[in-house]
Design a protein that fits this description.
mainly alpha
Length: about 80
């Protein structure tokens, strides 16, 4: 929240109109780290001076901990 990733990627990595979905099931850590440190397209760069390697690893661990949502077929309201 303090770094601002949620503004583009949502509070649980679900994605938004400005940023892709990151969770559940994030990309491999090496690819995630590369994108954060040397981003493609419009994402701002988050260097080690702004986001430590430990903080980056913690963010990735958080994304890994996010469980997938319920299947649409298991939600009664959607099956009417």
């Amino acid at each position: 929240m303090s770094i601002g990733c949620y503004a583009c990627h949502g509070t649980v990595g679900q994605g938004a109109s400005t940023g892709p979905k990151l969770a559940p099931g994030p990309m491999p850590f090496a690819a995630f780290q590369q994108q954060v440190r040397q981003p493609r397209q419009d994402m701002p760069r988050f260097g080690v001076d702004f986001l430590s390697d430990q903080d980056l690893a913690d963010i990735y661990a958080y994304m890994q901990s996010i469980p997938p949502g319920a299947a649409a077929t298991s939600i009664p309201l959607l099956n009417r």
